[in-house]
Amino acid sequence: MQKKLIKTLSTLLVLILIPVVLAAGAYGFIWWKVSSAADEFAREIAPFATMQYQQVHIDLLGSEVGLKQMSFTPAGNSNSIQMQSATLKAPSWGFLLDLSEKLNQGEIPESLDLKLTGIVLDLNSDYVRDWNRMAEDMQGGMEITGQSYETLGCGDLSYVGVNELRKMGYGSLSSDLSLQYGFDAVDRQIFLDVNSKTERMADMQASVTLQVATSELDMQSLMFAQPQLNRFEVEFKDRGYNKRRNRFCAKLNKEEEPAYRERYRSLLAQRLASEGWIIPEPVMASIDTLNNPGGSFSMRVDIPQGFGVQSMALIQTPSDLLDALNPYVELSGKPVSLDGVSWQLPDPTLVEQPAVSDTEVAIAGDQTDDLVQPEEVVEDASDMAPEADAEPKTPVVSSFDRTPQRKSFKPISVSSLSAHLGETVALYTYFGRKVEGKLISATSKEVTIEHRLVDGRGTATYPIAMEKIETAKLYH
Predict the structure, then answer these.
(1) Which DSSP category does 471 fall into?
(2) Among 415, 383, 408, 413, which Cα is nearest to 396's?
(3) Tens digits of per-residue pLDDT, 191-226?
(4) Could you read off the pLDDT of 264-279 as tens digits, one per residue?
(5) How far apart are CA 332 and CA 283, in angstroms?
(6) Alpha carbon distance 50, 42 (integer Å)
(7) What is the tens place of the pLDDT at every residue in 63-107?
(8) Which long-range contacts (CB under 8 A, 24 or more apart) does 180-184 make?
């Protein structure tokens, strides 16, 4: 009886130990492969930086490997870039363990997930100072004139650099970054996602869905896949940067934050108008909320029929692109209609106002009256009714909502197209496409348009079935 019990226990022990030993062996093999790959990578980047890590991360069930407690010390520097972890996840261990070799052979996994967490940049470190000097040298070599959108009305700054970030109170930046992609062989779609989160600054996310003409996932097939955009989505959320930037710029200008924000909005409207954008006042007000603390932006584009190279051939102006994409937009959590937003060649007579330096900023309340606001211009313009015997005056128009007194596209009936041969028309199909150009011919079955290519190197003729045309406009 005792011998039988010992034999039974021994059998159970063996059955338990076998999978444990196999798992331990697999774990040890994977640990060796990962550490060897990490050491090899460290040797490759040694001329540029020294990489160190404290721990190897392995998830046997999730086909995930990674490194923890990492640091990168740029060559010639004493400070390091810290990283909490870097993990890589693939569909299977077979692909993950031979990832480098398979990629060299042109093979691509069906999905891949890379996550970098706890990336810390010390803004007072030697390497950041070196990068800042290189950035300043590049900016100087590019001969940049004027101010960026970010620094409009912020003293005489052209861009926000490391020094400005320090003055805003940023001693370091801590970020998380993730990159994901997947491939659906049945629907022939590629999915790409990028997420970035920076503490006390901002969160950003972008995702793209591409339709491809292949069900094979390798580099050679993808080169001829003729990708078309099916879906695009981007989101941005302020996490503290706007408040710091607004406070910094107001202090630089020696003014209160509300005064700076009001002037920034005025300068932003002037900049957009000078670049040819016609933006209604409600839309402009929504755009300006992006600069408030907690401001957010979200845009989604869905194109089931696809948007590719042939679609781009029909795009001549930013207005054409807006019409083709028809994006859904939210600004600071509220849906915004882009009706009325358009673009035209910039008016050379509409010159952007120069930024006000800190020595020219109005400090006292009576001095702020010199800052003309767009809303005041609109009100004055609406009250300027010409007298009966006086020469009519040209109405003053807000830079938010300029309406040029010139030719424009006006709706006409589709059946009347044949009466406008040789003239410029814009046709809109039931699928939401817009085709603009010279009307060559128009019959009861088909319309032919001569369209100038976007690069200006010639024209192309496009026949369109009459039954597919929903509306038409004539340029006159």
Answers:
(1) E
(2) 383
(3) 999 999 999 999 999 999 998 887 777 666 766 777
(4) 999 999 999 888 899 9
(5) 12
(6) 7
(7) 788 899 999 999 888 889 999 999 988 887 777 777 677 777 767
(8) 180/111, 180/112, 180/113, 180/114, 181/111, 181/112, 182/110, 182/111, 183/108, 183/110, 183/111, 183/217
- Long-range contacts at 66-69 (CB < 8 A, ≥ 24 apart): 66/34, 66/115, 67/34, 67/38
The CA R_g of the chain, rounded to the nearest whole Å, is: 30
Residue 262 phi/psi, 5-degree rounding, is: -65, -40
More confident site: 53 or 32: 53
Q: Which residues are 86's β-sheet partners?
A: 67, 116
Is 2.30.33.40 the CATH classification of the domain at 409-475?
A: no
Residue-level pLDDT at 349:
53
Burial 56-79 (b: 16+ CB within 10 A, else e): bbbeeeebbbbbbebbbbbeebeb
Asked if residues 233 and 299 have their Cβ atoms less than 8 Å apart, the reply is yes
Angle of helix 374-383 versus helix 257-274 axis, rounded to 10: 70
Domain boundaries, the chain: 145-343, 409-475
CA angle 289, 292, 298 (to 5 degrees): 50
Indicate the pairing of strand 469-475 with strand 424-429: antiparallel
Q: Would you call 39 helix, strand, or coil by DSSP?
A: helix
Q: What pLDDT sits at residue 374?
A: 34
User: Which has the minimum average pLDDT: 54-58, 168-172, 308-312, 432-436?
Assistant: 432-436
Distance CA 207, CA 194 (A): 6
pLDDT at 384 over 60: no
* CA pseudo-torsion sign 40, 45, 47, 52: negative
- Secondary structure element (H or E) that encloses residue 331, with its range: strand 328-331
C-alpha 64/C-alpha 94 separation (Å) is: 12
- Among candidate residues 174, 175, 162, the one with its CA nearest the CA of residue 131: 162
Beta bridge pairs of residue 183 = 190
